[in-house]
Structure formats: C-alpha cells, structure tokens
Amino acid sequence: MMGGRNDELQEILETIDMESWLDQEGVRYKIVRGSSGRQANLKECPCCGNDKFKVYIGLDTGLGNCFVCEEKYNKWKFIKSYLGTNNKSAIEHIKTVAREQGWRPPKRQSMAVELSSADLSLPASIPMPHNGRNLKYLDNRGITGSIASYFDLRFSHRGKFDYLDDDGHPVTQDYSNRIIIPVFDLAGQLVSFQGRDITDTADKKYLFPPGFASTGTHLYNGHNARGARRICIGEGVFDVAAIKIALDEEMALRDIVPIGTFGKHLSQGDEDSQLAKLMLLKTQGLEEVTFLWDGEPAAIDAAIESALMLHKVGLRAMRHSPRRERSKRNTERRTAQGVLPGSGREPDNHDPNAPAQKGCLGNLIK
Predict the structure, then answer these.
(1) Is the dihedral of CA 170, 176, 178, 183 positive or negative?
(2) Which pLDDT score is estimated for 60?
(3) What residues have CB less than 8 Å from 107, skipping those under 6 apart?
(4) Partners of residue 183 on adjacent β-strands
(5) Among residues 101, 102, 95, 178, which one has the least CA distance to residue 135?
(6) pLDDT tens digit string along 268-320?
(7) Could you give the angle at which helices 75-83 and 6-15 cross, rounded to 10 degrees?
C-alpha cells in the first residue's frame, strides 16, 4: 500500500464487508467454514488464473491464499489483484465501495501549535470550549465547540497586551470580552493574533498586536494545510470557519483545508509573501486551489487574477462561481468552475438587534 496514507487506507479496508464486495463484483464463490470462521471459496485466483476453487478468503479478516500459486492475500491485495489496476485506481474503488457500505471519511484535525513564542504571547485567555462548554457568541454564529477547538479560538475575559510604542513608551491594549484568534505560520508557530469584540459596543471590532502583522504575510490556518492536496481560500477568519463547517458537512470534500488571506488579495514578491507560502505547500503535496472570496466585481477580478497566477506556477486554481453569475462571466477568463457548496450565512453577520453580550464569564459560556 502507499506510504503516509497507510493508516487511513487500512481504516477504510477494515470497514469493507468482503461478502458484499464479492457479490457486488460478481465473483463466483462458495461459503465454507474453516478453523478461522466463515470463508469464501473462490472459483478463480486473480493472480494465477486457476479456476478450480483453490482460493480461500476469510470473510471477516480478508486474509487468504491460493493453494495453486501459493499467493497470500489480504483485502487490499485481493481487491487490487482482482481489479487488475494501479494503486490510485484501486484506492478510489475501495473508497467508493466503503462509502456505499456506510463509511465516512474523518474530518481533518488541526495540527499541533505553539501558543507563545519568544517575542509574542497571547492575552490571558481560556481555550474554547471550556470544560465542554462553548461561548454563546460562537454558538450563535454556528461555530461549534469542535470548530472553535480546530482553530484554537480562545476567550479573553479581562486580558491585556503590553507593548512599547515607537517612542519606547509602554502601552496596554485591553482585550476584555474578546475572542482571541491566534495566527500561526506554516510550522505552527504563533506569529500574530486578533481580538474580536463580542459586545458590539467597543470602538474597534478587531484589535491587533502592534508590530505583528499578518495581512499580506501569512495564511490563516495554513499550518493545517501541510500535506493537503486541496485547499479553499477565503478572506477573513470567520469566512474560513464558515468554509470549514460547509466542508465537514460534505463527505467528499472533507480532505479540503480552508485557509484565509486576510482580504481579497494574494501577496507575492518575496519569501515572506503568501504566494511563497503556497509554493511551499505545493512541495508538500498541494495540487488544487479554489478561491471563495466575495462575489462583488472587484473580488471576482482579484480571484481570477490570483487563480491565473497560481495556474502559471503549476497549481490547478479556480474560483467558485455561483450559478447565477456563470452566464455573465467571460469563460475564457475563468480557469474552472468551483465545486464547493454554499456555506450559509457568514458567521460574522448576525442580528443587529440581539442584545450585547457582556458580563461575567458564566453568562458568556453556554
């Protein structure tokens, strides 16, 4: 079987019911009982071609052998030999059968990260969910505890961030009643963070630590895209969260990792640019990129330009096009049509008449 995906493939193979598979493929066999339980006595060996019922496969284990050519089988080897195909096609066949038999691919989990560095520490905060309870603000926007945990979201009740201004004077930022959103580099090291107000009464909806820029430099959630074959690019943090929620709901899309560019632009130019980081992900297996920026004309043009740029460096790039606009766009300028489902309402948009969330920590946790 194949390198780093052995564990996942083995998990899938364990879900395959061999008797159902044999019936589905029209393989001729008889049921017999051996020392290890029920076995399929197969008419023909896929390796040597002997058709005198000399092959036995355990229906529970998938283990067996041919008594003519002495070939030993497990589920993987027998299925691949029977199909007479290559590894990639055999794996796709096995996944298809497994889905038909009820298997569901696991949701992608987050990578290990460092929540502090020599230069930067987060304001005092607690991880979400806390003791199994999520922040009401997040729940109201469809951000479940598992999604909050995936993105390492935290809640700062009375946290602060101290720094020196350009003149060397100490300054304190107040991060009270804010969601702390860590930003990591591709290695999972903390490089910046955001603080999103949850009361809707603060002068600034978002706070950022001075001197630790992320816009134009980093890819939000990029560390979780290491080794991924497909990614989907959104804009802001909560756009990326909405994409993650939508992807998890679609079994066939769970391998796609959502990342964010902190705006409708993909920076390029040097090794610290977002393009350079995508190229690094390409060396780790990235093949396909889908842009899911806003549908306004400027964002559409920016996404198309970025997709064409990525296409030139060897990545399959496309912009997700809502059906209503497809007939209005010049197909020559589009590289492809998107495949992602709609993600519903944007989590950062909510009822303006909802009461501001303020007060003690107990009232903020669901």
Answers:
(1) positive
(2) 81
(3) 248, 254
(4) 192
(5) 178
(6) 888 889 999 999 999 999 999 999 998 888 888 889 999 999 999 999 988 77
(7) 90
Distance (Å, whole) CA 146 – CA 155: 15
Helices then strands, counting H and E runs in the chain, come out as: 11, 16
Place of tokens 């074959």: 229
What burial class does residue 105 get, using C-beta atoms within 10 Å of its C-beta: 0-12 exposed, 13-18 middle, 19+ buried? Answer: middle
Q: pTM for this structure? A: 0.66
d(CA 248, CA 144): 12
- DSSP letters along 330-345, please? -TTT---B--PPP--S
Within 8 A by CB and 6+ apart from 26, the residues are none
Please identify which residue in the block is written with the tokens 């001075």. 210
DSSP 127-177: ESSBTTB-BHHHHTTT--HHHHHHTT-EEESS-EEEEE-TTS-EEEEE-TT
CA 113, 254, 141, 299: dihedral to nearest 10 degrees? 90
**CA–CA gap between residue 239 and residue 244 (Å, rounded):** 9
Contact status, residue 19 vs residue 25, Cβ threshold 8 Å: no
Q: Which amino acid is at 96?
A: T
Q: Is the pLDDT of residue 360 over 90?
A: no
Which residues contact residue 9 at a Cβ distance below 8 angstroms, ignoring those fewer than 6 apart?
Answer: 1, 2, 76, 91, 94
What distance in Å separates the CA atoms of residue 34 and residue 152, rounded to the nearest whole number? 52
Which H or E run includes 193?
Answer: strand 190-197
What is the token pair recorded at 196? Answer: 């999103």
Model pLDDT for residues 113-151, shown as the tens digit of each residue? 888 888 899 999 999 998 888 999 999 988 998 899 999
Cα separation, 200 vs 31, in Å, equals 68
Is the separation of the CB atoms in 19 and 42 below 8 Å? no
